[in-house]
Design goal:
Chain lengths: ~280, ~300
């Protein structure tokens, strides 16, 4: 029986090994300076790049953060501080359900709210869709990190006369900040890889554009269209783009794990370890 | 210290942020349902049991996409659930301690890979493999079976099922692993004290205790599979048919939305697509809601309580 279970585990890990080796192999080989600094060349012409996609993804993630971070961190603080209340329990449950919904639905909402009334596809619509996607992820991650901070720290600050908001922000959140930041970065990386919400909001753009009111290119959108392209160099660029995404996500996930584990050890060691002296 | 105006502002900010999440789901549901309303009219051409999708003639039969969504997800679950649960048991119980964290990290990494990257790999590696090796082998092994009959294009229901299985496996195993780790030590110790072997302890003390949560984890995987868009779009062949063979192309609700939403302009077309989105949202909300409820129940008493060692 144990052998069967181990076989299952090996089979489960096998695709990961296959995918990662293939991406690293094909993607690394396709990396070039033109990939980072040039916009796409006409189909069939070599020498193009994904610069507009990389820049577009950065802009979209930045716009998503404007919505996702303030509300996400605020919600996370609420969930951690007023944990037993009914609103907290409902919000926690719904946040988990929301993060399991197909992301294309959020794209449809952004389309209905922004693209349809304005009559055009725009980067803002894509940013809003991604921001909505980011919200439950950041909220739950912030909650987990803030809960690691021992209650004694909060109580000491309150006993010293700090007001509630100052305790929460400058003492508790600040202590939890490395963990929160890493969790936020992981959420950003996940959002950066999303394609479906962007298909009919940001739409994609063959040219360089950073205009928020115009369609904008994005790395995952380019990977999607290049993957199905009949041209070899476009397909090679798709692998390079996939490699970039993989490095971003794997790197941040690894760093996040290390940071979280270090914070857990530090904060569980007791109030004495978190003294300023 | 009594509450200052700044304290009130802070509380308002956090409460508002928290309310934003349920509000988002309500906005989602209301917006899509409202936009899908025109599809309910008798002359809209939209039909859940209709088989023909012909935009030009105003026929919007959603059955192929709906059936495609349900069947690909079901078959993917059949493959991924045993493998994922097995991997979770290994990661939580059987693996030597130093190996557990790296194994869990590997599985989590599998869950973090973007869908479009899976699709790229599937299109470049899995589909050619199916077309050149697997499909001919299956067709030769079962020459009269309808399930493996027909032309072997490559992009097919089989490809979609395999890719979906690979994609939902880490979700199932991540949740299952958490659920297994939440089983109290006393259960395991009691079984071991009564003389059970390692596997007997797992089978008789851990698994039954965690059963509800494990079912919840499997259902979460199902929820993901139902909503999975990009990878499926790239390998399923995107044809509005009710496939009888695994080798045939098919369609799913999410692929339909991904392919046609950007170019839909006729009002009838848009509301038909909104109806498809409504179906998809309804099914995934139901499955995910039920799944989360099951998982919460195992990990803590009331739903929405914080999970964890406190």
């Amino acid at each position: 029986m144990q052998g069967l279970l181990w076989t299952a585990a090996m089979l489960a890990v096998l695709p990961l090994v296959a995918i990662v080796t293939h991406i690293v192999g094909s993607g690394f080989a396709a990396l070039s300076t033109s990939l980072f600094f040039k916009s796409p060349a006409p189909a069939g012409v070599s020498g193009g790049g994904m610069a507009n996609g990389i820049a577009g993804t950065l802009l979209l993630v930045a716009m998503a953060s404007v919505i996702g971070l303030p509300f996400g961190i605020g919600a996370g603080l609420f969930l951690a501080e007023r944990a037993g209340t009914r609103l907290a329990r409902i919000t926690r449950f719904i946040a988990d359900v929301l993060s399991g919904l197909p992301s294309i639905v959020l794209g449809i909402v952004a389309w209905e709210l922004i693209v349809r009334p304005s009559g055009q596809f725009s980067a803002i619509a894509g940013g809003v869709a991604l921001g909505a996607l980011m919200l439950p992820l950041v909220a739950r991650a912030t909650e987990e990190m803030v809960r690691l901070v021992p209650n004694a720290l909060r109580e000491s600050a309150l006993a010293l006369g700090y007001s509630q908001w100052r305790t929460s922000l400058t003492v508790v959140l600040r202590t939890a900040l490395p963990g929160v930041l890493t969790a936020v970065l992981v959420a950003l990386a996940r959002v950066a890889g999303e394609t479906a919400p962007l298909l009919f909001t940001a739409l994609g753009n063959a040219y360089w554009s950073l205009n928020p009111t115009e369609p904008i290119a994005a790395l995952p959108l380019q990977i999607f269209s290049y993957a199905q392209s009949p041209y070899d160099d476009q397909r090679a660029q798709a692998w390079a783009g996939a490699f970039l995404l993989l490095v971003l996500i794997a790197g941040l996930s690894l760093i996040a794990r290390l940071v979280v584990r270090a914070r857990q050890r530090l904060l569980r060691a007791g109030p004495s370890r978190t003294d300023a002296s | 210290m009594p509450e200052t105006p700044a304290d009130r502002a802070y509380r308002g900010y956090t409460t508002l942020s928290a309310i934003a999440i349920p509000a988002l789901v309500c906005v989602l549901a209301v917006l899509i349902a409202r936009a899908a309303l025109p599809a309910l009219a008798a002359d809209s051409g939209v039909s859940v049991i209709g088989r023909t999708w012909d935009v030009g003639r105003g026929q919007f039969g959603l059955l192929p996409a709906l059936v495609g969504t349900l069947t690909t997800s079901f078959f993917a679950l059949c493959i991924a659930a045993p493998l994922g649960l097995g991997a979770a048991v290994v990661a939580a119980e059987l693996a030597p301690r130093p190996l557990r964290a790296p194994l869990a990290f590997l599985l989590d990494l599998l869950a973090a890979i973007p869908s479009v990257v899976y699709g790229l790999w599937a299109l470049a590696v899995v589909v050619p493999l199916l077309r050149t090796r697997v499909m001919p082998a299956l067709a030769d092994a079962f020459p009269n079976a309808a399930l493996v009959a027909g032309p072997q294009y490559g992009p097919s229901m089989l490809a979609a099922v395999l890719v979906l299985a690979i994609m939902i496996l880490p979700y199932i195993s991540a949740v299952a692993r958490e659920v297994l780790l939440a089983v109290p030590r006393t259960q395991r110790d009691a079984a071991l004290a009564l003389g059970a072997t390692r596997w007997e302890m797992i089978r008789d003390a851990v698994l039954p205790y965690a059963r509800t949560g494990l079912i919840g984890g499997v259902m979460l995987g199902l929820g993901r599979a139902l909503g999975e868009t990009m990878a499926v779009t790239m390998v399923i062949g995107n044809r509005h048919t009710l496939p009888t063979s695994l080798f045939e192309p098919g369609y799913t609700l999410s692929s339909l939305l991904a392919n046609e939403f950007g170019e839909a302009s006729a009002e009838g077309h848009v509301s038909a697509l909104m109806a498809a989105a409504c179906l998809l949202l309804g099914v995934t909300l139901l499955v995910n809601g039920l799944a989360q409820w099951l998982v919460w129940r195992t990990q803590h008493g009331r739903i929405g309580d914080h999970r964890g060692a406190d």
